[in-house]
Amino acid sequence: MTDAICETERLVVRPWRHEEAPRLLDILSRVEVVKWLDDGPPRLMADLDAAHAQIDRAAARSASPPLGSWAVVPRATGVPVGSVLTLELPDAASGEVEIGWHLHPDSWGQGYAREAAAAVLARALDHGLEEVFALTHVPNLPSRAVARAIGMRDLGVHTWWYAEPSQVFRADRTTHPRP
Prior knowledge:
Blueprint lengths: L5 E2 L3 E4 L6 H8 L2 H4 L13 H14 L6 E7 L7 E7 L8 E7 L8 H15 L4 E7 L3 H9 L3 E6 L7 E7 L7
Antiparallel strand pairs: 1-2, 2-3, 3-4, 4-5, 6-8, 7-8
């Protein structure tokens, strides 16, 4: 039996495994990746202990489907290229959920973020969420392109959930196309 939460032709989206902690550390210790995560200055992952703790947090977050955080794994290699997640937004007044993704730079430009995000977004909407948001840093043009490519509607720049302005995108269950 597989532990995949969803699959595409090229990818398996599944929980991170502790033996993959070095790869997660490699991804989250890169400023070019983490500068797009959260508000404020980039916070680089420091060591393998932090990677193992992140894997444990991801498993705990994934205990309430369709929420969670998972590894994006190409079938061709079996090596995670990054993460995709659906999590409740901070200070969400009505339990609003965001979808997010981040990949290792060696995997940028190959369509993995778009493919994994489209599958996870469809899963979230099919599991009963009425709407899902994507928030990107305004200058993060590649992530904005992913949100558009998976059919999310651009709502403009807002500070609804984070202190810094975010480009906000939205998909809803009744009108969003499924892959």
